[in-house]
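Tutorial handout. Part one gives the primary structure; part two gives the three-dimensional structure as tokens.
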Amino acid sequence: MTAPALAPQVAPIDAIEIVRGQASTLDEVVFASAHLWPTLLVGLVCIGLLLWAARTRNRAIAALGNHVLVRRLIASVHPGYRLVTSISVVGAVFAISLGLLRLQYGGSAKVVPASGLDIVLAVDYSKSMLARDVYPSRSERLEAELSRFLDDADRRGDRVGVVVFAGGARGFPVTRDVRLLKLYLRKADPKTEQPGGTNLGRALNVALTFLVDARRAIGPNDDVQEARNRGQPPGSQPVEIPEAETDQAIVLLTDGEDNASRPIEVAKAAAKLGVRVFTVGIGSKSGEPIQKFDEDGEPDGFVVDEDGEFVVTRLDTETLEIIAKETGGAYVEVDPDTFSLDEVRAKLESLSRSQRQDEIEIAREEGFHFAVIAALLLLSLSLGLGDRRKASVPPRRT
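Part two.
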């Protein structure tokens, strides 16, 4: 049997001293889904039904008539087997209920520092990011740098979200689990992002919505969801938004060529909410042709306009600088020869720390599978045993 997986739980900082001072804390048995305790009542209901069935059966037997004859007719029924079968069924129901409560035991504790930053990475995955003015390409170098950025954020205890955008935008809300974020980014590919283009306004809107959701400490409510559906920044809606417990920032990584949306307006909405936008310019100002790909994802020449001229992508520093200035952030231009997000990380470090306290993450061993195995064994016993006596084989006559 393989070792059970560790199930992470997060406890407030007040519990840290308890865990440190009492080593026995991690030896306790707990129920991760204790709120499902009403399922235990199903077992009590089964007991009641079995007792009612036994009483009804005895009454029916008594009403049949001749007591001796009836006893002979039901002589094949073994009362002991029937009792064991009933107990097995009830035990299996209780075991399944315990499994649903997610019994956990032992484990280990780790202090998770809260650096006080909520960050959303808005990453441009339009076709222009396939340009090779950055070796081996803008998108490939960016993927490697984002992985380093997420590892660094994990060490600091930051909460991070991700928005991937081209002509549209989609994303993953703010979380501490960088493994999910890396997996999400790994599945993104400029070759498959639809529709094409670079919609900075929509990307900033989704990123801002994630940060508003983080302030509420719940999923997006109806008002924010409605604003998102209408494509309007949350800050422009007459919705009461709580103050942030910590500094919040959006890191916008793009070549900045946006001809479809109005990102400056979203930046102003972010400034009203106290969210800073740090813009990162990727690529060259001289311009690079945009590569095309066929249905199999293989290079298929370059994009041309109606006149047959190559479509060139250039770094639009002016738009990115305005966005950063409007929100009190900063603009960083990535050098193709020394591609790095270290300068961005340094600027984020200058932001104030959180009002949140450190947390401890308790990873306990899952024990629900023991209850499931017990339930299967009890059900197998009840099905295999039955309630009839074993038929005796008469001796052969010679």
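Part three, for discussion. Residues 40-62 form the longest helix (23 residues). The chain has a mean pLDDT of 75.
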